[in-house]
């Protein structure tokens, strides 16, 4: 399993190609040469997963009762536009238009993109959307940490 750390600023070219920073490529399986999965994020962003991590996400989705309407809606919305992306010889990945539209990323305006590593996935943000999200930082981070991390069952502890 790969873990990702750091925030990286980069540019998207007019063909919607994103050059992965070398420091990030070193953290990726195969040093950034293996296929990745990209999907809609829960905010105005995109999520990049390794193939192994994506397989885990799909396994969780398959546990949902697909006859329940709310589950159908979630699966449909979450997987809409999900795409395998493969780095080219120059280390660039193509961001699908449907996903760029979701995240407010316009390749024609030479957007600055923020890649924000979140341990097991990488968030892709248009810079101003990322700044707006960061502006909503919790007033008391210590209290949030206590609520989230204190005395609660966490992933793998069950």
Q: What does it look like?
A:
- It is a single chain.
- The model has no long low-confidence stretch (mean pLDDT 91).
- With 158 residues, the protein is of the alpha+beta class.
- The strands form 2 sheets. Strands 1-7-8-4-3-5 form a 6-stranded antiparallel β-sheet. It has a two-stranded antiparallel ribbon with strand order 2-6.
- Strand 7 and strand 8 form a beta hairpin.
- It is built from 6 helices and 8 strands.
- Helices cover 33% and strands 22% of the residues.
Strand and helix map with partners:
Layout (H helix, E strand, L loop, with lengths): L6 E5 L5 E3 L2 H4 L10 E5 L5 E5 H12 L6 H11 L3 E3 L6 E3 L2 H7 L8 E6 L4 E5 H9 L5 H9 L9
Antiparallel strand pairs: 1-7, 2-6, 3-4, 3-5, 4-8, 7-8
Largest sheet: 6 strands, antiparallel
Count every helix, treating DSSP H or I runs of 4 or more residues as helices: 6
CATH level 3 topology: Chemotaxis protein chec
How many β-strand stretches? 8
Return residue spans where pLDDT drops below 50 for at least 5 consecutive residues: none
Q: Span between N and C termini?
A: 20 Å
State which percent range the strand residues make up.
15-25%
| Rounded mean pLDDT score | 91
CATH superfamily membership: Transcriptional regulator MraZ domain
Shape, per Cα inertia axes: globular
Q: Fraction of residues in helices?
A: 25-40%
Order of helices and strands: EEHEEHHEEHEEHH
Gyration radius, in Å: 17 Å
Structural class: alpha+beta
Describe the strand arrangement of the main beta sheet, using strand numbers.
1-7-8-4-3-5
| Whole-number tally of structural domains | 1
């Amino acid at each position: 399993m790969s873990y990702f750390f750091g925030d990286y600023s980069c540019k998207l070219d007019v063909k919607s190609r994103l050059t992965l920073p070398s420091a990030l490529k070193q953290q990726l399986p195969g040093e950034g040469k293996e296929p990745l999965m990209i999907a809609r994020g829960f905010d105005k962003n995109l999520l990049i997963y390794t193939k192994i991590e994506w397989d885990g996400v799909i396994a969780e989705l398959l546990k949902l009762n697909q006859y329940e309407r709310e589950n159908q809606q979630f699966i449909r919305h979450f997987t809409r536009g999900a795409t395998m992306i493969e780095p080219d010889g120059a280390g660039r990945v193509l961001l699908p238009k449907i996903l760029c539209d979701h995240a407010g990323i316009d390749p024609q305006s030479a957007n600055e993109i923020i890649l924000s590593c979140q341990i097991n996935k990488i968030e892709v943000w248009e810079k101003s959307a990322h700044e707006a999200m960061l502006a909503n930082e919790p007033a008391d981070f210590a209290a949030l940490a206590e609520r989230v991390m204190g005395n609660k069952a966490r992933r793998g502890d069950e």
